[in-house]
């Protein structure tokens, strides 16, 4: 089984950390390939960044089907950029880490809070929660005063801020689980959970394990209607590649 993790930004440190994390949790026989697109934003911290990242994501999905014999895809950004468009490009499973994390969190506790990065992403995260139908389970979205790149440049300080918000979520929100709202936090999930003492869900790990299950169950993206292939006259963004 081959799973491709697409980091929609171009910061290689994040991609390398995702590769290391996935290798540590994937079962024997699962090969994980973590990549960044050739071009795109260094981090995704707003709608503009997210829009810039989507063409690169779609190109990596097309390449995975065309050249790399990929069985499933993980979009490793908490905004799940280009998720629905990516599902049109392949009949393989495509999972966003926010969607995967919400589902996993709802199965380990009655409610959860999300701890994410800068305050400007609150509205984006609210949209995700609503789109995926988790308004009742999500108690609160907690932002932290940091940039996404702080997780690569000053990880100790950044994770200390995340842990402080997690503790407030337990005390004030009565959260029974925490969802980490950024792929840059993925490598620190276990440490954060040890510090706060309740389940902490990282969407990258959740998505990798769900991909393994879906491939085992021979489940792919339905092509019956909504995620049917794009119109034949369209080309994949990037290099005018054929779609199917």
Note down, in words, how this protein is organized:
- The protein has 244 residues and is an alpha/beta fold.
- The protein has two domains: 2-96 and 205-216, Rossmann fold (3-Layer(aba) Sandwich); 98-202, 3-Layer(aba) Sandwich (Rossmann fold), CATH 3.40.50.
- The chain is 45% helix and 13% strand.
- The protein contains nine helices and eight strands.
- The strands form two sheets. It has a four-stranded parallel beta sheet, with helices on both faces. The chain has a four-stranded parallel beta sheet with strand order 6-5-7-8, with helices on both faces.
- α1 (12-25) crosses α9 and α4 crosses α9.
- The longest helix has 21 residues, at 47-67.
- The chain is globular.
- The relative contact order is 0.17.
Give the total of domains.
Answer: 2
Structural class: alpha/beta
Q: Please provide the ordered H/E string of secondary-structure elements.
A: EHEHEHEHEHEHHEHEH
Number of strands: 8
Architecture per CATH nomenclature, i.e. the level-2 architecture of the largest domain = 3-Layer(aba) Sandwich
Shape call: globular
Low-confidence stretches: none
Order of strands in the sheet with the most strands? 2-1-3-4
The termini sit apart by 21 Å
| Tally of helical runs | 9
Largest sheet: 4 strands, parallel
State which percent range the strand residues make up.
5-15%
Percentage of helical residues?
A: 40-55%
User: Might you state the CATH topology name of the largest domain?
Assistant: Rossmann fold
CATH class of the largest domain: Alpha Beta
- The value of Rg in angstroms is 17 Å
Average pLDDT confidence is 94
């Amino acid at each position: 089984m081959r799973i491709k993790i697409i980091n929609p930004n171009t910061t290689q440190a994040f991609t390398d950390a995702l590769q290391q994390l996935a290798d540590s949790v994937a079962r024997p026989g699962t090969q994980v390939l973590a990549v960044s697109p050739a071009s795109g934003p260094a981090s995704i911290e707003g709608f503009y960044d997210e829009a810039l990242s989507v063409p690169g994501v779609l190109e990596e999905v097309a390449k995975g089907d065309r050249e790399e014999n990929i069985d499933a895809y993980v979009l490793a950004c908490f905004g799940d950029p280009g998720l629905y468009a990516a599902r049109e490009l392949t009949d393989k499973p495509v999972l966003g880490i926010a969607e995967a994390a919400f589902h996993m969190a709802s199965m380990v506790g009655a409610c959860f809070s999300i701890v994410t990065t800068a305050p400007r992403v609150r509205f984006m995260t609210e949209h995700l929660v609503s789109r995926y139908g988790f308004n009742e389970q999500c108690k609160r979205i907690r932002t932290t005063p940091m940039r996404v790149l702080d997780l690569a440049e000053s990880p100790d300080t950044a994770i200390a801020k995340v842990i402080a918000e997690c503790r407030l979520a337990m005390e004030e929100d009565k959260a029974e689980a925490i969802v980490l709202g950024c792929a840059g936090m993925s490598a620190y999930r276990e440490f954060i959970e040890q510090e706060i003492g309740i389940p902490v869900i990282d969407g990258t790990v959740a998505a990798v394990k769900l991909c393994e299950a879906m491939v085992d169950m021979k489940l792919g993206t339905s092509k019956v209607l909504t995620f049917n292939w794009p119109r034949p006259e369209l080309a994949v963004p990037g290099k005018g590649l054929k779609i199917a």
